[in-house]
Description:
Layout: H1 17-20, H2 25-34, H3 36-39, H4 43-51, H5 56-60, H6 64-69, H7 74-88, H8 99-113, E1 116-120, E2 123-127, H9 138-141, E3 152-155, H10 157-168, E4 174-178, H11 185-198, E5 203-207, E6 213-215, E7 220-222, H12 232-235, E8 241-245, E9 255-259, H13 264-267, E10 276-279, H14 285-295, H15 301-311, H16 315-320, H17 325-337
Helix pairs in contact: 2-4, 8-11, 14-15
Amino acid sequence: MSKFASISGTTSKLPKAEQMMAWSQDDVQTFLRENRTRLNLEYADIDKIYNEKIDGEAFLALTQDDLTKLGIVLGPVKKVMNLINDIRGKPSIKRKKHDTDDQKLERFWRALKNGEIMENKNGEFLKLPEDGNYLLDQDEQGSNTNEPNKPSLFVRRCYHDLYEMIFNNVKVRRWRISGNPGIGKTFFCFYLLYHLARTNQTVIYHRLKKPSILFSDDDVYSYPEDNIHVFKDFLANKKVWYIVDGREPMDYVAKTILFCSPQKHYYDAYDKLNVAIRYMPVWTWKEVDNCRNELFSHLNQEYVWELYKKWGEIPQFTLFYAQSDEQQALLKMAINAVNENLLDFVGETTEDNNSSHRIVHIRPNVPEVGR
């Protein structure tokens, strides 16, 4: 009896992802040969996979594009991808109310792939097709006057620097990107997703109070419940990216990036896992004004300048909430709430002194990198 399961008629006998991760190149070849008829593969197709030195871990990371580039025709490719998804443990049943969401997520992922970074007198902007609005808050991202239905994100210089650090440092598998609330960490997260989409990466994206989402070339879907563990087989793959925004991440093999404010409950346990930490700098007046001119042109420059002088370099209050009397009032309350021990406050916050971050700004040292 073979140690490799047959896939005829059921997925109950499939190898577990954890088992396949330990398979050698020869094990994968044997498995495919034993299931060749079911998968409609030719021996030549299996040899093509074998010659690429595909072991169990690499097999689970294969995409439809990978197999097509090997010259395997579409029918067997689809069957192999269905098999990989079954082994990975993709949920087979989803609530119907999420079907429409999944379609919108697919269009959002395509929009990221089709996005462009364009430069003008106001700086660089990531321009997305209309479907790029799905996960973005239109009120917070601003709106291009010429194309109000197409989302645009202001690309700060530090986005490039942080992106290069993360992608070029292959030895670091866990990152924490922090900074003041309202500084734009989530927007950098979308900038990062844009690059991951363009390079055909597999991503598990998990945002605070939102379902976890799989983005990949083969499939895009969200799980109906707030349960990251449904994607555990993907997260066991070190080639997968695990992007966590505003919540505590779980400990997985996947390359993990946590975006969070400096509230200890987000990162206390995570930071014990050999994490590289970077802080986003506050905005310069030039950045604020360029972003205003391109995306918030309805705001008067003099008015924004007064807010900038009053509240500092956090765009959430100088641009996004510039016309919100309620949010501006919160800033005034924050001043009254901060006591004389303010100078002892060093980037740490709790629920009790969260208002301090509206007043105290984190200013990291930003090296000049060839600029």
